[in-house]
Write the structure tokens for this entry.
Amino acid sequence: MKLMTLKQYMNMSKPALIRKIMKTLKGMPKKKLAIACYNISKSKLPNIPSDAPIPPIYIKAASIAEHRRQVLKERWGKQQKGIRYTGIGKSGYGYWTTRKKKRKFSKKQLAAQRLFAKRARAGTLRR
């Protein structure tokens, strides 16, 4: 299939373009379609400049979220080692979780695992 120029696509009729797009969309994976849909929806949102004043409705929402965070800090106190704040959930209150530490293996352990796997594949393991 050859790559067509923009001029060639402009010469096509609207139904023909829609058919071509639909054919392409049907072959795409669901994840790519979801990302494309999200980007299209996002592009339709108004672009608010960074120096624009914040509307009062958003100030109120931000203050509510800040209040919830403050309540959680008071309830849980200072953050303990190994426990982190994961943010505000659907219920409106935050939650704390423990971090899972990645296991570290020594060189000896890794070598033993490789040997074990090799013997398991060969079928020479002793019981």
In short: The two ends are 60 Å apart (CA to CA). The first strand starts at residue 83 and ends at 88. The chain has five helices and two strands. The beta strands are 83-88, 94-98.
